[in-house]
Amino acid sequence: MSAPEPSTAAGKGRVLVVDDELDIREGLETLLSMEGYGVDLAANGTEGLRKIESRAYDMVLLDLMMPDRSGMDVLRDVRGRDAKRLSS
After folding, report:
1. Which of 42, 41, 29, 33 is nearest to 10 (CA)?
2. 3-state DSSP assignment of residue 54
3. Which among 1, 44, 56, 62 has most CB atoms closer than 10 A?
4. Can you give the pTM of this predicted structure?
5. Contact indicator for 25, 41 with CB cutoff of 8 Å
6. Core vs surface per residue 19-48: b (16+ CB within 10 A) or e
7. What are the domain boundaries of the chain?
8. pLDDT in tens, 66-82
9. What is the pLDDT of residues 43-60, one digit of tens each?
10. Residue 35: left if φ>0, alpha if ψ -120 to 50, beta else—which one?
């Protein structure tokens, strides 16, 4: 697996919003964009993990209750992946 690409968003940083509710994703995207953040969206935990593996984010907002996996499951997967990478 290649290393995630560095955050290159102009402004304050890059944020990933992972939520299964379209209105929540779009509302957060609008709010964060207006505040100068670059924003990526994911409709579920699996899509969120794919995006996390493909680039670096300054912050990830995770919904706790999603149909495919919970936000806590996504967080555990990311922490486990990072721990393996650091121990290599």
Report:
1. 33
2. helix
3. 62
4. 0.81
5. yes
6. bbeeeebeebbeebeeeebbbbbbbbbebb
7. 13-87
8. 999 999 999 999 988 87
9. 999 999 999 999 999 999
10. alpha
